[in-house]
Amino acid sequence: CKYVVHDQCAMKALPCEVSTYAKSRKDIGVQSHVWVRGGCESGRCDRCQKKIRIYHSLVGLHCVWCHLEIHDDCLQAMGHECDCGLLRDHILPPSSIYPSVLASGQERKTSKTSQKTMDDLHLSTFEALRIDPVSNTHPLLVFVNPKSGGKQGERVLWKFQYLLNPRQVFNLLKDGPEPGLRFFRDVPGCRILVCGGDGTVGWILETIDKANMPVVPPVAVLPLGTGNDLARCLRWGGGYEGQNLGKILKDLEMSKVVHMDRWSVEVIPQQTEEKSDPVPFQIINNYFSIGV
């Protein structure tokens, strides 16, 4: 929700009302606006086009999904339905994610504290959630290596969690790529964005091979740090330099899918009595050429 407070004010802050999934399958369907006070960075109302005067207090409202910014007085003129804005092709709105099975013996509580406990214990692993994507969209699965590019990876992770649904953005240092691939396994038309260097991209591609997905989704690269030859060859640039991530997502939406050979190289040593290190198993991403 992008709500910012002092450390000493955190315990007094209002509880976040933003949910990242529908509470049951009967609640999926049309997504509604979710308005949060403040956060109007553009300073202009998307309804009346007049300036939103920002003082020392929280002024105006912004939708956490389509990122529209409006005056308080313009709220009544806005419809309830949210189309997720300019990034609708990539976003998985909460109305597209629902819990498949609640744990036996557990009852859904009405208090915010009990609800948060339910979310943390039973739904954070993604195995308890299912995806029913919006038609004619291409939900984006984002993998971020926070260690890549110094502090860049951490900032990119936070920004994508704000631009998209946090449930489609995965920190590779926590559980690796497997939970994300399982979560998106049966999502038609999905795409993958890998934020990291060539080593991170190779890790994701190898995991996709092992996952035996029904359809292998196309993979784009946001190059972080050094060692980004693959990103250069695919025309994503040699490194991320703080460009607007929203624009990068729009470029990804319009990008062309190309096929890339991946070779499994097995070296069979000659029979010898000399002791030596075992021959490593190699995967080569043939995105340019192999020479001798």
Would you give an account of this structure?
The strands form four sheets. A four-stranded parallel sheet has the order 7-6-8-9, with helices on both faces. It has a three-stranded antiparallel sheet with strand order 1-2-3, with no helix packed on it. It contains seven helices and eleven strands. It has a domain at 86-265 and 277-292: Rossmann fold (3-Layer(aba) Sandwich). With 292 residues, it is of the alpha/beta class. It is 21% helix and 15% strand. Its main location: cytoplasm. It holds the Pfam family DAGK_cat. GO terms for molecular function: ATP-dependent diacylglycerol kinase activity; metal ion binding.
Keywords:
ATP-dependent diacylglycerol kinase activity; Rossmann fold; metal-binding; alpha/beta; Diacylglycerol kinase, alpha 80kDa; 292 residues; PKC_DAG/PE
Question: Compute the gyration radius: what is it?
Answer: 22 Å
| Highest-level CATH class of one domain | Alpha Beta
Strand order of the largest sheet: 7-6-8-9
How many β-strand stretches?
A: 11
